[in-house]
Amino acid sequence: MSVSVLTVQNLTKKFRSGWWPFTNPYEYVAVNDISFSVNEKEILGFLGPNGAGKTTTIQMLLGTLTPTSGSIHYFGQDFATNRYEILKKARYASGYDSLPPQLTILENLDIIGRIYGLSKTKRAEQIEQLLKLFDMWNMRNKETGTLSAGQATRVMLVKAFLGDPQLVLLDEPTASLDPDIAQEVRQFILEQNKTSGMSILVTSHNMDEVTEMCDRVLVLKKGRIIASDTPENLAASIAQARINLIITQEYDALVHYLENKGLSYIKHEHSVEVLLDEHAIAHFLSDIAKHHIIYSHISIDKPTLEDYFLSVAK
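Predicted structure:
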């Protein structure tokens, strides 16, 4: 039986525009009655197009925004009344946040370790271990205000994993990182989840990243949760696949065939990309053979999580 480390029930956030009675105010519902949970040892992806309500939800989960209604429980405790105790076991990092710029990396992390209640020895050990892991140990005495976006993101990740938290909220954790460092971060997250049983809630616009890391994905649109499933199942809900054909004979005949059938396609110089329902692929290939259309190469790309995301983002 799954144990929830975070439970959100009927969470709603409304914003009022204007200042009554001088203007005519109206309510904007940024998050609309959402309920979900993050289970023990689970990596949960949190997806949605811009304006879907992801950031507002994260801010409520951190206590920087007060919900209009609904409840948030961490580890079975009400967040509204046990925030201090809860935040000892939960962490947050964003690819867009920063630390006090005039302090060095080491000074910033040492202060954070003290806030988390780590002993001097434990702070020193974990800070060194994590900075070395993210290839930042040789920069430990640099002021954080002098760091590049990618370097600052790595320091924020070190901050999030100090003190062996039980739950980590990550907002676009690899947004500013080079591909090689981003891959190292993903591997680190997966390793932490595997070895310590740490639960993780992660937002990302990198669909390959979400597919690689997440056990389950929540999809938010216009303030509501519209889907909750595995990345594979969400991708499979998009029936269309891409068929790429390099045509060696009867190229024009293929284009004519596609137009007559009303099929979606993209023309290239010597190839054609056709969008088809997966169950129709065999019939399509048999049919074009009857029209003496010959191809030298074929590739079939099944639907991905990105295809699903693009379909719901419209």
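Summary: The mean pLDDT is 90.
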